[in-house]
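To: structure desk
From: M.T.
Subject: fold request, one chain
Message: Could you run this one when you get a chance? Sequence is below, nothing fancy, just the single chain.
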Amino acid sequence: MARLKTDSAAGMLSRVIAASAGGFIFASAVIIALSYLLPGARVQAVIGVSLMGFVFWTGAAIWSFAARTSLRAWAGLAAGTAISAGVALLARMVWP
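Reply: Done. Structure tokens follow.
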């Protein structure tokens, strides 16, 4: 049976911050991107995606603790946030 590697206190604190703050920033970027991409009235898209934001935030928090290292957790959140922000910027240029 494989032995689990324990994290230091600093690594655990980093994961907690990644889950809370990093997850919030990631979920916000996804909400902004999807609100531009969903069809229909903009108000309905924003409300619908905002409700789904809790799912994205929960997924980011689970990812933060499931990643092998805290650095990998931060890298995954940063990559997802960058992609979502890029999609939002492109969608903003196409559909003002």
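Reply (cont.): The CA atoms of residues 18 and 74 lie 6 Å apart. Let me know if you need anything else for the meeting.
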